[in-house]
Write a structure and sequence with these properties.
CATH superfamily: Nucleoside Triphosphate Pyrophosphohydrolase
CATH architecture: Alpha-Beta Complex
Number of helices: 3
CATH class: Alpha Beta
Number of domains: 1
Structural class: alpha+beta
Strand content: 35-45%
Distance between the termini: 22 Å
Strand order of the largest sheet: 5-1-7-6
CATH topology: Nucleoside Triphosphate Pyrophosphohydrolase
Radius of gyration: 16 Å
Helix content: 10-25%
Largest sheet: 4 strands, mixed
């Protein structure tokens, strides 16, 4: 059996002292999470966070920085997740847009609100991402690179 972590992205969207969160159904529970989801074939990490945020919250956003990269293994099913979290800026909201399947609602919550709902957090990464964001962790977007050229086009041989 080979080890294959699932690659996910998450959006950290702050307005005043509140963060954009989603209430969603996952593994038979109603949980709280940032707008987040899996990287799809052919998209960059930044494109994934834009798409996931729009699908889950109806907010169009623009990534401005990377706030962290997190590796976590679920004790429930032993799946391992590699999450790239982004600080993003809201551009526009479409209140008529239908939200993704499984998303019950999008809402704005403070860190204290989330702490009070700690048992409902989808994973420990939710609060860790917010704490890193609040601590001012910001890395330039160009730290993430998607290489689209074939190895031989870059002067190296393919494996």
């Amino acid at each position: 059996m080979s080890f294959r972590p699932e690659i996910t992205v998450a959006a950290l969207v702050q307005q005043q002292d509140r963060f954009l969160m989603v209430e969603e159904r996952a593994s038979g529970r109603v949980v709280l999470n940032q707008p987040a989801g899996h990287l799809e074939d052919g998209e960059s990490l930044a494109e994934a966070v834009i798409r996931e945020t729009l699908e889950e919250t109806a907010w169009a956003v623009e990534p401005v920085a990377v706030t962290g990269v997190y590796l976590w293994q679920s004790p429930l099913n032993s799946k391992t997740f590699l999450r790239v979290a982004f600080a993003v800026r809201c551009l526009q909201h479409d209140p008529q847009r239908e939200l993704d399947k499984g998303i019950l609602r999008a809402m704005w919550m403070s860190r204290d609100d989330l702490l009070a709902e700690h048992a409902r957090l989808r994973s420990p990464m939710v609060l860790d991402c917010i704490d890193d964001y609040l601590a001012g962790r910001r890395y330039p977007l160009d730290v993430l690179r998607a290489l689209h050229r074939l190895p031989e086009e870059r002067g190296v041989s393919a494996l």
